[in-house]
Amino acid sequence: MVNAHSYTYMQESACTPTTDIEGYVPFPDDRCQEYVEDGYWRNLTFHDVLDRVADDAPERTAVVGPHRELSYAELVENSRGLATYLAEEAGLERNDFVVFQLPNSSEFLEAFFACSRIGVIPVMLLPRHREAEARHVLELTEAKAVFAAGDRYRTGFDHVSLLDDVRDDFDDLTHSFAIVDDEETLPDGWTSFDAARDGELASDPSVDLDEIEVNPCNPGVLLLSGGTTGMPKGIPRTYNDYVFQWEYMAEVSGIESDWVAFPSVPIGHNASLNCVIGAAIWAGATIAVEPVLKPDALMSLIERHGGNYSLPIPTQLIDILEHPDLEEYDLSSLEVLVSGGQKVRPKAVYEFVDRWDIGFCNIFGMAEGPLICTRPADDVDVQAHTVGTPIAPHADEVRIVDESREKEVPQGDAGELSVRGPGFFTGYLRHEEENEENFDEDGWFYTEDVLALNEDGNYEVYGRLKDTIIRGGENIYAPGLEDEIIEHEKVENVAVIGIPDDRLGERVGAYVELVDGYDDLTVEEMGSFLEDQGIAVFKRPERIEVVEELPRTEVGKISKTDLRDDIVDKLENE
Ligand code: AMP
Questions:
Q1: According to the UniProt entry, where is the signal peptide (predicted)?
Q2: What is the mean pLDDT of residues 131-158?
C-alpha cells in the first residue's frame, strides 16, 4: 500500500508569493516562511501530488466513471496533453483564470491537473449556476477560457449554450472547450476537449511543460462562495494551503490507497474538491465519478465500485435513508462518511453508524478554509451532536470571539468563529470591502458563523450570525429551533427565519414542508408541541408558511436568502 505520507519531501527553505494578480491578497512572506519551516506547507502543486502517486503506482486506477477508467499514469499523461495544448495553442499563461462548468467526470480531473501544470487557475462555476453567475464570474476573473460539458454528459441542461450565449460579451475570453462525443454538436468557435487533449501537440510539443515553474505559494484554484447571499465571491486557494488540507483530510478520514472515494456533491464545490478528491489523490486512492447526483445514482455507484468514502450533504443522507428501494442496494462497502455544509440531523448519524458500521465525520466546512470535524473513531454521541475538532489542531488557529471581535468568549459560550493558519484563505478576490469587514490587521478571518467549544473540547455549531434571530433582545439560533420543530409528526423539513418586525426587530417564522398526507400546520399546533418540549415562548414560531418544496442553493442547501425575500414580499403585499 502506498500512501503519500511515506514520501520524503523536498522542503525548500522558503516560498514567496510571486503573483501580480490585481485584487488578490497573498499570504504575507513571514507566514509563508513559517508554514514551510514548520513542515505544514510541502511546496507541492496539485500536479506534483498526482505525479508522485503515478511514479509509485502508475497502473493503479485513478478515476473510474460511467464512460472511462484511467490509471494514475494515464491521468498524468492526459493532463499533460491538455496542458500542452492550453499553453501552446490557447496561449494560456501562469495566473490566467479559466472557468470550469463541468460535471463530476474524469475530464474534470484531466482539466484540473492540466491547469496546475501551467499555473493557470481554474474557477469553479457549478453546474447549477446560471447566466447571472456565469456573467458575474467571467467579469470578476477576466477568464481567458471556459470548459463545459456537451453531448457526452446530458444532465438536463445545456451548459455549452449557456456559455456560448454570453461569451461574445467578454473580450478576454478567447477559447471555449466542450466535452462532446459528436463534434457536429460544437457551436462555432468551440474546440473539442478530447481533440485538445489528444491532439498532435501532445506528441510533438514545442512547449516543455517541465520547464514551467509553478509557484506553490500562488493561487491554484478559485472556489466560489455559497449562493446563500447574492452573487458568489471568489475564494483563491494556493497550492500550498489547499494541499495542506488534502493531507490532513486524508489523515483525519483514514482514507487508504485501496479505497474508492466518490464525490457526492458537485466536484467543483470545496466539499468534494478538497475533502474527497484532494484527500483521495493525496492517499493515492481511486476516485469514482457519477455526473448524476440523485440518491439512486449514488447508491448504484457505491454498489458498482465498492465506494468506501464520500462527503454527502445532510439532505442526501436523509434521501438515502428514506429511499423506498434502499434495501435493494448493497452499501456495505462504506467505510467513512463525512457530512456537513449544514447542520446534520443527529438521527441520521445514528442510523448510518448503526446500519453500516461506518466512521462518521460530522464536519463544519467552508470553502474559505475552516474544516472542523469529528473523527471516525469518536463516540457516536460526539459524531451526532458536535463537529469535533479542527483537522490540523496544532496548526489551525481557531478562536470563538464575542461581538467586539476582540475578546474570546469563555469555553462553553457561543460566539463567532475566527480563524488563521496554513489552511485558510487570505481574502476574497477583488472584494476589498468584504475583506476589510471580515479580516483584521493580524490576518484573522471572521467567519460570521456562531460556534461554541464545549466542555469536552469539541465544537458545536449554532448557525450563521445572520441565522440568529433577535426577537426583542432575545437571541434565537435558527438551526437549534429547527431540530425541535422537525420532531413534529407533520413536519418533513423546516427552515426558520427572522421576520422583520417594527416593534420587536424580528419575530420567528417557519417555512415547512409537510409529511405526505397532511396539508396544514397551525401556529397554535406548533406552539403547544414546542410547549410540551419545554421550548421558551419567545422561540415559538409566530408565522408558519407551508410550502411544497423549500428553495435550494446550487449544492442543495436550503436557501434562506430566498425565504427572507419571500417573506418581505408577502409583508409588503399584506
Ligand atoms: P460554503 O460556502 O458552501 O462552503 O458553505 C459554508 C457555510 O456552510 C458555513 O459558513 C456555514 O454557515 C455552513 N456550514 C458548514 N458546515 C456546517 C455544519 N456542520 N453545520 C451548520 N452549518 C454549516
A1: none
A2: 94
Taking the centre of ligand 1 as the mean of its atom positions, its distance from the CA of residue 462, in whole angstroms, is 11
Three cell numbers written together for 464: 450563521
Q: What is the position in ligand 1's atom list of the atom closest to the CA of 228? A: 2
Could you tell me which of 294, 333, 300, 327 has the C-alpha nearest to residue 312?
Answer: 294
Calpha distance 521→503 (Å, rounded): 26
Q: Are strands 445-453 and 414-420 parallel, antiparallel or unpaired?
A: antiparallel
Give tens-digit pLDDT for 59-102.
999 999 988 999 999 999 999 999 999 999 999 999 999 999 99
Looking at residue 273, what is its pLDDT? Answer: 98
Indicate the pTM of the whole model: 0.91
Question: What percent of the chain is helix, strand and coil (3-state, nearest 5)?
Answer: 35, 20, 45
**How far away, in angstroms, is 352 Cα from ligand 1 center?**
21
Share of residues in the chain with pLDDT > 90 (%): 85
Torsion sign across C-alpha atoms 383, 386, 392, 394: negative
Q: In which order are the strands placed within the sheet that holds 97-101?
A: 190-192, 175-179, 145-149, 97-101, 121-124, 219-224, 234-238
Which value, to the nearest 10 degrees, does the dihedral of the CA atoms of residues 250, 286, 75, 186 take?
-110
> In what order do the strands lie in the sheet containing 389-390?
69-71, 61-64, 286-288, 260-261, 309-310, 336-340, 359-365, 371-373, 389-390
Mean pLDDT of 347-373: 97
Convert the pLDDT of each residue in 222-277 to its tens digit: 999 975 556 899 999 999 999 999 999 999 999 999 999 999 999 999 999 999 99
For ligand 1, whether the C-beta of 383 sits within 6 Å is no
Q: Which fold has domain 476-573?
A: GMP Synthetase; Chain A, domain 3 (3.30.300)
C-alpha 345 to ligand 1 mean position (Å):
14
Query: Does the pLDDT of residue 9 top 70, yes or no?
Result: no
Q: Ligand 1, closest atom to CA 340?
A: 19
The per-type count for the chain, helices as H runs and strands as E runs, is 19, 25
User: Which pLDDT belongs to residue 200?
Assistant: 78
Ligand 1 atom with least separation from CA of 553:
3
DSSP-based three-state secondary structure for 58 = coil
Q: How far is 453 from 436, CA to CA, in rounded Å?
A: 27
Give CATH for domain 4-453: 3.40.50.12780
For ligand 1, is residue 343 a contact (CB within 6 Å)? Answer: yes
Give yes or no for residue 366 CB within 6 A of ligand 1: yes
Q: Answer whether 227 contacts ligand 1 (Cβ < 6 A).
A: no
CA 285, 288, 292: angle at the middle one, nearest 5? 155
Nearest alpha-carbon partner for 314 in 562, 555, 561: 555
Q: Which of 301-315, 328-342, 377-391, 474-488 has the lowest mean pLDDT?
A: 474-488
Specify the residue for cell string 480563524.
Answer: 419
Could you tell me the residue ranges of all domains in the chain? Answer: 4-453, 476-573
